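Hi F.,

I've been meaning to write this up properly since the lab meeting, where we talked about keeping a consistent format for the predictions we share between groups. The idea is simple: the sequence comes first, exactly as it goes in, then the structure tokens exactly as they come out, then a line or two of notes. No screenshots and no reformatting. I'm using this chain as the first example so we have something concrete to point to.
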Amino acid sequence: MKKFLLVATVALSTLSFVGCAAPTSETSVATTPTYKNGTYRGGYLDGTVEVEFALTDNVIESVKYRKLKYKDTDFLAKDASETTVLLAGQYQSLIDHLVGKNISAIDDLYHPGEIAETIDGLSSASIKEGEVIDTLSGATLRSGKIISALNDGLNRGAYKLAE
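Output, unedited:
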């Protein structure tokens, strides 16, 4: 019986070390998931950002905001102030950057200063990592909310499948 336990212990120890081995060429590497062609909708948890985008073969064909707010400022309001309209254009440039690109380009939004258009009072120097800052009104809309909304749409699945 002791011999059996010894053999079993050695066998289990050997198997546990095999699981720790370095990946080999036969080991599969994680890849970007493939999403169904269609229209996706997602939002940020607090309801300030909602997006809708169309995917074809994992390429973003179109994307738009369904909701874009910060505190009491609705960036999509028809009666928005000139400043708000300018800022909405800056936020639009973030999602426009994604059109025609693979969904992996969503990660580009972690560096909004390299994407967002500059406007009077806003320069790349005033855009911090992960956020776009409105130095005209003091409002901040984090690009992280946009990233989360896009990922939420992917996680929820297609809102409407392509025909």
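Notes:
The longest strand covers residues 59-70.
The chain has a mean pLDDT of 78.

If this format works for you, I'll send the rest the same way.

G.
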